[in-house]
Amino acid sequence: MLVQSIEVNFSNYGTNARELVCDYVLMGFEFIGGGPVIEKLDFTLEEDFDDVRQTIELKVFLNLYETNWMQLWLATQNKTLDIDGVRYEVVADFRDLKWPLFEKVMGIGTHPVIKLKCKQIGIKTPDNEIGSMLEGVVE
Hints:
Layout: E1 2-12, E2 15-39, E3 45-60, E4 62-63, H1 64-74, E5 79-83, E6 86-92, E7 101-104, E8 107-110, E9 113-118, E10 123-124, E11 130-131
Antiparallel strand pairs: 1-2, 1-5, 2-3, 3-9, 4-8, 5-6, 6-9, 7-8, 10-11
């Protein structure tokens, strides 16, 4: 799901919060494997997937002060995002983040793409319940 120009609240479990308007927020999911990975003779892999984990990618303009704040926020362990009334506990999904610079009339800032993963497995609903996309799948 792609949402453009949306306000996102970045916080550490409700403290040190900052609300920023993001260019976009891209919600996705990745399959989480369980058990052994089997390699077939044609070199394709077969794996059993137990569940899914949500991924969140967002892009946001940050002034210099917000850039410094975001670097500190990314270094914390208790990161949360509030997007459209749904709270996500997240962890960083990158080892190195690029901070491309831009210049505006009021000074210098950055325009990074930030990739995050939800801590809990499953898919969060607007009612803040966690379900699974794989529930009820017939094998």
